[in-house]
């Protein structure tokens, strides 16, 4: 699976302008975890390496924390915004204090900053990335376009990421663990019967199929036209609307179907060079994800 392009439009410092209180050395026991941390998977071997590095050199990159009202029993005074791996490793290394930038941040800021930071470091797997987008949409009523602007992604890229959440849990776990790539998973979404996806996904992994081979396998496993009862053909206008709906969902952009007496025309809208490139790759099946 090739490396995904990262092109964030703004850095972490742009998300909370003017809110920094400066660098402090904060006790690790005073830092509560970020409940909206997008990243859930931490490689044990990589974490062990970081622990050894911190024991030798200390924490070189400060964490970002937000002040919170301490509990009556003198509980945590800060909520972690960025630096989950560093905090875990510092505790395992026995550090009592870590360098941290203290910034004002509400729950939306915390999620947005954690998402952008992890995307910049390429730390999120495809499922974690999709879940983070979904959290921004559901918790803060953002549109896919607004999420894309915050994360430095095009709207089609966000839409394609969210489509992964339609996969059965077993297949999502395979994507999360890395045994199945994002491109393979999107190919499996072409199956109408979700119940068949886990078995087919396992076959893809066992046979080490490429994305192209997976697409061909899915096409062969679809029911033949003779096996499916032919539905009644909808009226022309209804058919056009249905085609537009399907193409919009696949391409992640506005699509118009105009029918004439003989044939018609199909109009695909795009709003940036990046979006045009995404549409091009989707149509031609040039899956570099």
What does this protein structure show overall?
- By secondary structure, the protein is an alpha/beta fold.
- It has 3 domains: 12-123, Conserved hypothetical protein from pyrococcus furiosus pfu- 392566-001, ParB domain; 167-225, Arc Repressor Mutant, subunit A (Orthogonal Bundle); 236-284, no CATH class.
- The chain has 12 helices and 7 strands.
- Helix 4 crosses helix 6.
- The longest helix has 16 residues, at 236-251.
- It starts with 19 loop residues before the first strand and ends in a 5-residue tail after the last helix.
- The relative contact order is 0.11.
- Residues 1-20 have low confidence and may be disordered.
Quick synopsis:
This protein has 289 residues and is an alpha/beta fold. The chain has helices at 44-57, 84-92, 107-120, 126-140, 144-151, 155-163, 169-177, 182-188, 197-207, 211-221, 236-251, 273-284; strands at residues 20-27, 31-32, 63-67, 78-82, 97-103, 255-259, 264-268.
List the helices and strands and how they pair.
Elements: E1 20-27, E2 31-32, H1 44-57, E3 63-67, E4 78-82, H2 84-92, E5 97-103, H3 107-120, H4 126-140, H5 144-151, H6 155-163, H7 169-177, H8 182-188, H9 197-207, H10 211-221, H11 236-251, E6 255-259, E7 264-268, H12 273-284
Helix pairs in contact: 1-2, 3-4, 4-6, 5-6, 8-10
Main pleated sheet: 5 strands, mixed
Sheet with the most strands: spatial strand order: 1-5-3-4-2
Average pLDDT metric: 77
CATH class of the largest domain: Alpha Beta
Helical element count? 12
Residues in helix, %: 40-55%
DSSP, total strands: 7
Give the key terms:
289 residues, Conserved hypothetical protein from pyrococcus furiosus pfu- 392566-001, ParB domain, 3 domains, five-stranded mixed beta sheet, 47% helix, elongated
